[in-house]
Amino acid sequence: MEYFLCIALLVVGLLLIIKCGDYFVDAAIWIAEVSHIPSFIIGATVVSFCTTLPELIVSSVAAANGQTEMAVGNAIGSVTANTGLILAITMLFTPFAINRKDYILRNLLLVGSVALLFILCISGVLNPYLSILTFIPLIVFMWDNIKNAKKKEVAPTQDMEKEHNESLDNAAKEEKAEEEEEEPTLASRIVNIIAGFALAAVGIVVLVLFKERFTALYVVQIVTALIILAFGLSITQIAALLKLDEKSEFVKKVIESDIVVNLVKLVAGIAGIVIGSNLLVDYGSAFAILLNVPEIIVAVTIVAIGTSLPELITTINAVIKKNSSLSAGNIVGANIIDVCLILPVCAIIAAANGATGLLVTKQSLYLDFPFCLGIIAVAVLPPLFTKKFERWQGFACIALYITYLVLCVLMGQGIIFN
Q: What residues in the chain have per-residue pLDDT under 50?
C-alpha cells in the first residue's frame, strides 16, 4: 500500500507540473502581450523562463525543505535527460545540417556554464555568492536571444520577400492542416474525460485509505490538485461535447473573456506547479526510502525525466514534422537556463535557511556532473566543426545516458561510491 501511495501521488505531481506548466506559459504570454511587450522579447525571454519553471520550483522546494540531494539531482538530472535522451532522439531519427553561426555561441555557453558550475561545486558546497557567476553566461544568452529575435522583426529584403511570397500557399496549407490536427477528436475528448475521472477516483482512494497520514494542509493540496486536473482533463471536455457555450450565455461570455480565462490559467498554473512540486519532492523522497536508495537516485531518474516530459513530447512532434533544428535549439536554450539559474537559486535558498551553501554529494561530483558535461560535449561540440547534428552523436549520447543510469542504480545499491 505504501508503494501505491507514493506512485499515485508522484503521478499526480508530475501531471500537475506538466499541465499547469502549459497553463502558466499561456497566461504569461498573454500578460506580456497585453502589456505591449514586443513579440520578439516575449519569445526570447518570457517563454524561455516559463518553460524552465517546473524544474526551478521542484528544486527550490527541495532546497527549502533541506533536501539538497533532490534539489541538485533534479537540476543536473534534467539537463542530462534533456541532452542524453531528448536531443539524442532528435539526432538519432532526424540528423540535420545547421548554420554554425546560429549555434556557436549558445553551444559554447552551454558547455562553459556546466563546466563553471562543476568547478564551483567541486568543494562539495555551492557558495551562494560565487554561484552568481553563472548569471554571466545566462545574461549573455538572453542578450543573444533578444538580438537574434529582433533581427527577425527587421523589414525583409527583396530576396527574402520574394522567397516569402513563394512559400505563402504552402504555409497556409500547413497552418490549416495544423489547425485541423489541433481540433480534438471525439475519441481524444472521451479519453481525457476518462483520465480525469480516473485520477479523481485514485485521489479519493488515496485520501480515504491514508487519511491519518495527511495533515489538513496536505489534504487541501491534494483536493486542489484533483480539482485542477479534473477541470483540465474532464470538465472542459464535457462542456465542449455538450456545447455549453452555445446553450448558455454566461458560459459563452466566460469562454470569450480573455481576462477571465487567462487569470484562471495563471492562478491554476502557479497553484498546480507549486502543489505538484511539493508532491514530487515529498513522495520522491518517500519512494527512495521504500526502495532503500539515496533520494538523489530518484531525483536524477524519475523526477528529472518526469519534469522533462514536455520537452520530450515537443521533440517527438518535431521529429514527426521534420522540424528538428527548432527542437535542438530549444533544448540547448532550456539547458543553459537550467544550469545557470536553478542551482544558484537553490544555493541562495539554502543560505537563507542558515546553511553555508548548497551541499553537493559525492555522486553529483563523481557521476552526475562528469556525465552531464560529457554527454553535452558529445552532443553540441562536433556540430561546430561538421556543421550538422549527426546520427552517431544520437547513438553515443543514448549509450552514455544508459551507462549513467546503470551506474546510478549500482551506486544506489552501494556497489560503487559506497
A: 155, 159-160, 163-181
383 within 8 A of 95, measured Cβ to Cβ: no
Helix/strand/coil for 5: helix
How far from 329 is each of 99, 109, 300, 325, CA to CA, in Å? 12, 13, 23, 6
Sorted by where each begins, the domain ranges of the chain are 2-150+184-412
DSSP state of 141: H
Q: Spell out the long-range contacts of 119-123 with Cβ–Cβ below 8 A and sequence spacing 24 or more.
A: 121/343, 121/360, 121/364, 121/365, 121/369, 122/365
The alpha-carbon radius of gyration of the chain (Å, integer) is: 22
* C-beta atoms surrounding 198 within 10 Å: 12
Running DSSP on this structure, what letter comes out for residue 157? P
Residue-wise pLDDT tens digits, 54-73: 788 888 888 888 888 888 98
Prediction pTM value: 0.75
CA distance 191 to 181: 16
Q: State how far the alpha carbon of 389 is from the alpha carbons of 81, 97, 320, 332, in Å.
A: 18, 6, 17, 13
Quote the CATH superfamily of domain 2-150+184-412.
NCX, central ion-binding region (1.20.1420.30)
pLDDT tens per residue across span 114-151: 999 999 999 999 999 999 999 999 999 988 888 877 77
